[in-house]
Amino acid sequence: MTENTDKLDLELWLDKRLVPRQNKLKAKFWEILADVGNSVDSEKLMQIHSTSRGAKLSRGNDLLGYPYQVLDLIRDFDVDEGLNIRILNWFGHGLFLFVLIGRNHPKAPLQQLSKNNWTFDQSPSPWDYPEILLKGASTNSPTVDLFEKSTFYQWHKPVQISGELVAAKTKILDELKKLIFLLS
Description:
This protein has 184 residues and is an alpha+beta fold. It has one domain. Helix content is 38%, strand content 26%. α2 runs parallel beside α7. The chain starts with 9 loop residues before the first helix and ends with a helix.
């Protein structure tokens, strides 16, 4: 469907229920991600990666026109030796868990991630979520050749949540705990 750029959608513009409803939902997800970040044992993150800088929550309003929220854990983005765990909440698209592992990182559980339903990302940039999630720049069956050609290792996994606040938080924490176990 093409959008008529000569017309203003005044019905949408004057819908007083839409924006507060979306803002309330954003606030609930922000609360979930903050609680998840505060629930992760920082000492456990230090055991996985000694230069862990803890958790950071951030947000944006325009990833292909959709708002998003990000929780980063560990926060070492070096493509050679770094490690980062990211939870991406992309409105209109879903919730995803990412792990970025430097090519020379000693705790790169490539086989274990593959066996646990993680998808290996093939985008030249770890931040190109449209390429990875929408255009399929990823594989469930990475080869040794693919690993050798990659300048970094990034994996992702969708997290299916329910509409209940506590259940959503629990599901995210369960997936995060599984990942932390694989990285330990």
